[in-house]
Amino acid sequence: MRLAALVACLLAATDAMALPKSLRAVLGGSGSAIMGEAAIVDAVCKLAGTETPVVAYLGTATYDFEKFREGQVKEFRRRGCEVVAVDVARTAPPPADVAAALERCDAVLVSGGNTLFAVDRWTAQGVDAALEKAMRRGAVLCGGSAGAICWFDAGHSDSMDPDWYADVMIAGGGAADPAYKVAPGEKPWPYVRCPCLGFLPGLVCPHHDRTQSNGVLRAEDFAGMLLRHPGEQGVCIDHFAALVVDGEDYAVLALDGKPGTLVAGGTEPDFSGAGTPAIWLKSVEGGRVVAKAAPAAGKLADILRKPTAVVEDARIARAREENPSNVERP
To answer: What is the reported pLDDT for 57?
Structure first.
């Protein structure tokens, strides 16, 4: 009996990790910088099968600030799409209301921002289960930065940037300050490996070709992170690139006229700004990080793989203490 129960549990776990053929997504290397781009919205509408999808917007990672929401949904609104705000960052609405909003949407748009806060908040309120249900019925998952990495096993995250902490922003400071502008190198905060929803396998690095306020190139820091987490597959998305998923197939969406790291004939990322936006697959082989540009299109199974081992980041506990998600805020 015990052996049979164990086998049943293992089979259930295997089924739970299988990628559903209904999976559809548009996942970008940045949030506000690309979500208003026509090519990104075109991709979402095409996957949704309608020119005017109903879009459920989760701004949890930016604490449900209206200004961040409007910046990301303006192109959808311009096209006549209905946008339903699902606000769970500061209060806990009835689960039935959240489920109803996610059940009727054609697409789920997640904002950029503080990934750890958002995922923890969703998990505590059962939003994660409602999101998985939406994914399995075919709703398009979309977003950039935090809105992209949240769907994977984990992400290279700036969740310990204090300018993006809830209490700081709600008080009108940090990234919520209208005059907010920080030059690279001004803030000594660390990137962390943020555990996410696990709908897709992979450790994702957004803004792959960018340097943020801590002065460290994302790609450079990610290499060190991957060496600390060698059992995982790295998926690195340039600032102006997006991964488009349609069931078992994928395509790399590179925004026209935007800089990136892929140069003709190059086998390594080029950070001079002379290339085009790309997605790079990185892994640890022989004690070093090896990078390979993802082909422009192909089978999703060829670029993503389940981790062989997962090592949690010890700094996550401190990040949760500094920016708790279990507090109700006005």
So the answer is: 98
User: In the chain, helix, strand, coil percent, each to 5?
Assistant: 35, 25, 45
Q: How far apart are CA 301 and CA 296, in angstroms?
A: 14
Residue given tokens 């990628």 in the structure block: 19
What six digits make up the tokens of 277?
Answer: 């936006």
d(CA 223, CA 230): 10
pLDDT in tens, 174-224: 999 999 988 777 889 999 999 999 999 999 999 999 999 999 999 999 999
The pLDDT-based confidence of 88 (bands split at 50, 70, 90) is very high
Per-residue confidence (pLDDT) for residue 10, from 0 to 100: 34
Look at residue 112 and give its three-state secondary structure. Answer: coil
What's the Rg (C-alpha) of the chain? 19
Distance from C-alpha of 102 to C-alpha of 54, rounded to nearest angstrom:
10
Cα separation, 99 vs 86, whole angstroms: 10
Q: Indicate if the pLDDT at residue 143 is higher than 90.
A: yes
* Residue 143 C-alpha from the chain's centroid: 7
H/E element holding 95?
helix 95-103
- Token pair 């700004």 is at which residue? 273
pLDDT at 16 over 50: no
Q: 118: alpha, beta or left, given left = phi > 0 and alpha = psi -120 to 50?
A: alpha
Which positions ≥6 away from 207 have C-beta within 8 Å?
Answer: 29, 30, 145, 218, 237, 239
